[in-house]
Amino acid sequence: MRAVRVVDEAQLRACLSIRRKVFIEEQRVPEALEIDEFDQLGRAVHVLLYDDSGAPVATARFRPYHPGDSDTAKVQRVAVLAHLRGRGLGRRVMQAVEELVREAGFREIVLDAQLHAERFYEKLGYRRASDDVFDDAGIPHVRMRKSLM
């Protein structure tokens, strides 16, 4: 397994391909909600995880939580191909994201977790930011936080 920071259009297309399969095709999220202004090089930091054969298998991205925010990063679009779930790939891609978030100088991560994935993030040290459950693209979510200090 090898995780890389996305630096070219081919890698970005691989990230978007994984997200298309997971979010648009599998979870039925409308494309107009899934693909956004942060899906360009330089607008967010994208991470791509390759398996041992060199095939892209998981992805995530992060950006400042608010424009100009240098303390809190928002992690988004964490996706692992369906047939490979349960093998630790989500943990691996999150470890890579957290390493890059730390290198960028952020002190905290915020993410909006699909409710069914809350336990996954808890195992990685994330905690609910509130008791509120909210709808995002027709899927229940909870906001979670993790301090990197």
Automatic annotation (TrEMBL):
Pfam families: Acetyltransf_10. InterPro entries: Acyl_CoA_acyltransferase, Bact_Acetyltransf, GNAT_dom. PANTHER family: AMINOALKYLPHOSPHONATE N-ACETYLTRANSFERASE-RELATED (PTHR43877:SF2), AMINOALKYLPHOSPHONATE N-ACETYLTRANSFERASE-RELATED-RELATED (PTHR43877). Its EC number is 2.3.1.-. GO terms for molecular function: acyltransferase activity. This is GNAT family N-acetyltransferase. Residues 2-149 form the N-acetyltransferase domain. Keywords: Acyltransferase, Transferase. It is an enzyme of class 2 (transferase). It comes from the Bacteria.
